[in-house]
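As a warm-up, study this chain.
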Amino acid sequence: MRNLEAVELGLREAIFRDLCQVLAELLNDPTLPVPEDASRPGEKCHADRPKEMLTLFGPVPLSRNYYHAATEQAGRVPLDRALGLWEGYSPGVVRLVCRAAARFPFETAAAELKAYCGLEVEGRQMQRIAQDMGPKVQAVQQQLPPFKHNAGPIPILYAAVDGTGVPMVPEELEGRVGKQPDGSAKTREVKLGCIFTQTTTDEEGLPLRDYQSTSYVAGFEGAADFMVRVRQEAIRRRMAAAWLVVLLGDGAAWIWEQGQKCFPMAFQILDLYHALEHLSTLTKLLEDQPEAAKALWRTWREQLLTDEVAEVLSQARQRAAKLPGQAAELAHKEIGYFENNQSRMRYGTYRALGFFYGSGVVEAGCKTVIGGRCKGSGMRWSETGATHILDLRCSLYGNQFDQVWDRLNQSDYLRLRVLAPVLIADKAA
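Now compare it with the structure written out below.
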């Protein structure tokens, strides 16, 4: 006897071969009533046209009525439509393809799918499937009910927003200004919104994010349109039932400008990490000696954490007034950052209330949801291609992928017309 793995694989192959035969008999039954299986005006019917469908068990031969009008580029296959097939792929295969394509580069995804499931789908074909299904996934996700485990009261709902650059193909960068030495751009910003909830704090009073409560929205659109989508996701996540709403972000002006319009009643909180980065830059401008700058940073950091932003600003302005030329200009620029965001820096109050006041969730999302798939070595994206992949990844990392696909595949045809007679006959026997 060969090794156990060989036996396992042999048994699987034999079982899958039998299952393919069962599927072929079910799906080629000539008595199946098919909606709209008749020629329309101007159409010609090509009866019993042979084709093949790739299923979770392997390829299955099919015989189909194909209708085509001379005035149309493509024809139609009513039974395939009723069954939810995608160009010769079963719904189960399409689900796996999209999950794999969302996680890995297309060629890698193809190899993983073959290794784990024995399914051979070319990387290029996986790309076509993902790009076709991405918009459908996003449309369904927008209509999903809230998470079942977040159905109770919502003490605090957070909307955290950020952006990160994604490498693009040259034609997507024409006329854009960037950070390259010649002023050109290699990337475009993808904005990411995270909606999550908080119900409790830990023993030390630190906030705890509700388990699996984070959902994502990502896109290339302008600030106004994107923030509208973030608001729509917050509404879907029962923002109206939340006791408090918090908008988290860095110092980007578009976040607060559009946030004021879309979340007018929200607490606006500037991420502490970004505030401390700017504080470090400011103290280095105001103190020549590194140790003195560090000491000043530590002092002012404690004041920020105790709601003494006004005192920090007062001292900073006095010191900046003594600086010469360009140094003074740079210092006043950093001071302006704190002036513009002063109302969002009440960190002592936020800590006392048990709020999140860091944007770690959305920054981690930028790395995981966006960067983990779109910023690999040598990658270059079109806006359309990146958008569709991000649609899939938002549903996957937002723990809604399977729920979305269950809705996409809600067809009673197979259950009522194909499986029911078989089950009835089996029960009678």
